[in-house]
């Protein structure tokens, strides 16, 4: 299949002078394998006062191209492999290679490092489109882009960016290692420890529920360098898969997203060089909080994509194939009302997702928006995928199609990267702060 870059052409946004310097201006990349647009990365907040209001769901031409290209790739390349990967509980290695070839593993990585240099919303678009066909593939791309790549971009030294970003863009899957057996929702009760050595650091401990572990070559590991300081002793480190003392102890068998690997990791006197510290010592907890806020938008996009994929699959079936009492099931008023209600909820969830993404890009406070998007999108995904099975009857219950798989896959949305109760707590705390005199 041709790479996405062939569908891109030089684009110029007509923007007021005050904003033109601070946003993406897409252009074709000399490397035909990759999506491409140049991104001007600024720390300051984008000035939006001179921009005309647009719908939340409005996509730039580049984002539209991303959606169309990923949709085509998903239908032609991923869909034929979905059932086989789910049954085998393993990601197809060839498919992972194709994700790199198509530029989907380096969406926000600048072109100078071999990435596509696109904006955050473009990554969200890609994650959503992948999930319409297979949420397992979607979460592999999501974690790699929104957590791992972003951590290296934000907190890596010049040397670590030059070493790792080209690999992450073209060949090396990344994994984010925070959770442990005793620290799930209480993420900072972790017990994995790090200590200084003459040449760098030594890590001991274990991690649990780690996504992308089987495929990854790079792991961002959070460990406590000074337990006496509590969570303020937590630091972040880059660990290469081939480092002595690192091992994958167990691959979990799961209810859903079964092709996505989830593993237990062990660290037994893992020695890493000083340059593998990510950011500053003792700042790991701040990095994790910040990056997970962004990551929740990605998970919300995964859930809206899942819901839309489940809805489309069922709607086509009841409007074209399934008949009862001499008419298509989808023509009964009771069924039509359910279909309309479900689509309305999907659209509302997508509005929350893209509003959070746009606020993040604009440099505005998006923490509550991300929490609401993840909470509601996961709820909608569960309701819609469950209803879709009922609409399809026996064909929804058997494992011939994707309906039952989407239902199983939806459950994880309420669990990882912050449970639904954690999202509710975050929303409530922020509202209480706003409304308390």
Automatic annotation (TrEMBL):
Q: Which coarse location class describes where this protein primarily resides?
A: mitochondrion
A GO MF term = flavin adenine dinucleotide binding
Return the InterPro entries for the record: Acyl-CoA_DH_CS, Acyl-CoA_Oxase/DH_mid-dom, Acyl-CoA_Oxase/DH_mid-dom_sf, AcylCo_DH-like_C, AcylCo_DH/oxidase_C, AcylCoA_DH/ox_N, AcylCoA_DH/ox_N_sf, AcylCoA_DH/oxidase_NM_dom_sf
* Single biological process term from Gene Ontology: fatty acid metabolic process
Looking at the record, the residues that make up the Acyl-CoA dehydrogenase/oxidase C-terminal domain are 282-429
Task: Look up keyword Transmembrane helix and say if it applies.
Answer: no
**Key words, A-Z:** Acetylation, FAD, Fatty acid metabolism, Flavoprotein, Lipid metabolism, Mitochondrion, Oxidoreductase, Phosphoprotein, Transit peptide
- Lineage top rank: taxon: Eukaryota
Q: Which GO terms describe its cellular component?
A: mitochondrial matrix
Per the record, what are the reactions this protein catalyses?
Answer: hexanoyl-CoA + oxidized [electron-transfer flavoprotein] + H(+) = (2E)-hexenoyl-CoA + reduced [electron-transfer flavoprotein]; 2-methylpropanoyl-CoA + oxidized [electron-transfer flavoprotein] + H(+) = 2-methylpropenoyl-CoA + reduced [electron-transfer flavoprotein]; butanoyl-CoA + oxidized [electron-transfer flavoprotein] + H(+) = (2E)-butenoyl-CoA + reduced [electron-transfer flavoprotein]; (2S)-2-methylbutanoyl-CoA + oxidized [electron-transfer flavoprotein] + H(+) = (2E)-2-methylbut-2-enoyl-CoA + reduced [electron-transfer flavoprotein]
Q: Which residue numbers delimit the Acyl-CoA dehydrogenase/oxidase N-terminal domain? A: 60-171
Task: Give EC number(s), comma-separated.
Answer: 1.3.8.5
Kindly tell me the pathway this chain contributes to.
Lipid metabolism; mitochondrial fatty acid beta-oxidation; Amino-acid degradation; L-isoleucine degradation
Please give the subunit comment from the record: Homotetramer.
Instruction: List, alphabetically, the PANTHER family matched.
Output: ACYL-COA DEHYDROGENASE (PTHR43884), SHORT_BRANCHED CHAIN SPECIFIC ACYL-COA DEHYDROGENASE, MITOCHONDRIAL (PTHR43884:SF1)
Family that this chain belongs to: Belongs to the acyl-CoA dehydrogenase family.
Q: From the Swiss-Prot or TrEMBL record, give the protein name.
A: Short/branched chain specific acyl-CoA dehydrogenase, mitochondrial
């Amino acid at each position: 299949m041709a790479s996405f870059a062939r569908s891109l052409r030089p684009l110029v946004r007509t923007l007021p002078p005050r904003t033109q310097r601070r946003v993406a201006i897409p252009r074709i990349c000399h490397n035909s394998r990759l999506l491409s647009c140049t991104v001007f990365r600024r720390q300051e907040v984008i000035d939006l006062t001179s921009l005309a209001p647009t719908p939340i769901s409005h996509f730039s031409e580049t984002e539209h191209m991303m959606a169309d290209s990923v949709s085509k790739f998903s239908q032609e390349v991923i869909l034929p492999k979905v059932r086989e990967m789910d049954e085998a509980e393993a990601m197809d290695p060839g498919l992972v290679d194709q994700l790199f070839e198509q530029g989907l593993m380096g969406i926000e990585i600048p072109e100078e490092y071999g990435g596509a240099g696109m904006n955050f919303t473009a990554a969200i678009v890609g994650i959503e489109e992948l999930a319409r066909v297979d949420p397992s593939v979607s979460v592999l791309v999501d974690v790699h882009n929104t957590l791992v790549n972003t951590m290296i971009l934000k907190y890596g030294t010049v040397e670590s960016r030059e070493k790792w970003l080209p690999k992450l863009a073209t060949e090396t899957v990344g994994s984010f290692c925070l959770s442990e057996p005793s620290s799930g929702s209480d993420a900072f009760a972790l017990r994995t420890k790090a200590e200084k050595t003459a040449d760098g650091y030594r890590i001991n401990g274990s991690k649990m529920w780690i996504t992308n572990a089987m495929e990854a070559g790079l792991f961002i590991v959070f460990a406590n360098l000074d337990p006496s300081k509590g969570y303020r002793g937590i630091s972040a480190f880059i660990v290469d898969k081939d480092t002595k003392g690192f091992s994958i102890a167990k691959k979990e068998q799961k209810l859903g997203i079964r092709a996505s690997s989830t593993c237990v990791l062990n660290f037994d006197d893992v020695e890493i060089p000083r340059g593998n510290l990510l950011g500053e010592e003792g700042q790991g907890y701040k990095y994790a909080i910040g990056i997970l806020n962004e990551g929740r938008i990605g998970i919300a996009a995964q859930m809206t994509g899942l819901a839309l994929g489940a809805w489309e699959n069922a709607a086509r079936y009841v409007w074209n194939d399934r008949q009862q009492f001499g008419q298509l099931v989808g023509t009964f008023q009771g069924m039509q009302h359910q279909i309309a209600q479900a689509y309305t909820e999907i659209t509302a969830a997508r509005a929350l997702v893209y509003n959070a993404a746009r606020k993040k890009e604009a440099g505005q406070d998006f923490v509550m928006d991300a929490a609401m998007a993840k909470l509601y999108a996961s709820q909608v995904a569960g309701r819609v995928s469950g209803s879709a099975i009922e609409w399809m009857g026996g064909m929804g219950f058997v494992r011939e199609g994707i309906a039952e798989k989407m239902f199983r896959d939806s459950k994880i949305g309420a669990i990882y990267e912050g449970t639904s109760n954690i999202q509710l707590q975050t929303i409530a705390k922020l509202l209480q702060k706003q409304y308390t005199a």
